[in-house]
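Sample intake sheet
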Amino acid sequence: MAVEKAFMSLDTLRNGYLTLRDFHLNFSNFFDLSLKEDEIRTLFLEIDTDHSGVLHYEEFENFYNKNYREVLKQLDLEREQKNTQNEIFDHIIKVLK
């Protein structure tokens, strides 16, 4: 099962759960994605539906099955919006100088 393989690849300590550190260290490598630290934290918190501070297999499976690509697409959109805001701010600063 792809979900189980993904979870086991992230759970390198074989605890049966993922900490934010586990998730952060392994997520980008496993999924071949480049996410910023705050984006990984946001994603982790979204997956952690019981707010326990760790991801259990069931939470990860629910996330995975609800099409994680849609969640990542939303993160990319948010990143683009932040970049646009930063570009506007940079331009304003240059004009003011």
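Comment: The longest strand covers residues 17-18. The chain has a mean pLDDT of 83.
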